[in-house]
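Priority: medium. Attachment 1 of 2:
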């Protein structure tokens, strides 16, 4: 199982970024995918998740109305569109897949495989 997150970078407050998570080594459309982030000195926190068919999406309150998640099962890729970025969104962003269960998608312990992370820095 491999998850490759990409698309991070430096952006000014109010700007946008789109992250991608390319997956391989498993049947992609059998599983939900989640995005988490971790800022220096803080615990890893849930950002969004998407069901295996892309119909169900789940958001942390802190990103509602600003971030959206989508997936292209033909390309084995999940996307995280981030708009109206704030300095507090600065973190390393990780995608992950829960193989054992599709429940409790907001909990890091529900996920079995993680990508390497991509840095997002929001600063003027």
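Attachment 2 of 2:
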């Amino acid at each position: 199982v491999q998850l490759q997150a990409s698309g991070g970078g430096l952006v000014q407050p109010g700007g946008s970024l789109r992250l991608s998570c390319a997956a391989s080594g498993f049947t992609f459309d059998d599983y939900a995918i989640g995005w988490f982030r971790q800022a220096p000195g803080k615990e890893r926190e849930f950002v969004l998740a998407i069901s295996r068919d892309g119909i169900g999406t789940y958001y942390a309150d802190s990103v509602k109305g600003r971030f959206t998640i989508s997936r292209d099962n033909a390309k084995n890729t999940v996307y995280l569109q981030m708009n109206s970025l704030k300095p507090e969104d600065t973190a390393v962003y990780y995608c992950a897949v829960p193989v054992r269960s599709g429940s409790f998608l907001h909990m890091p312990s529900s996920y079995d495989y993680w990508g390497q992370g991509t840095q997002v820095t929001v600063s003027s």
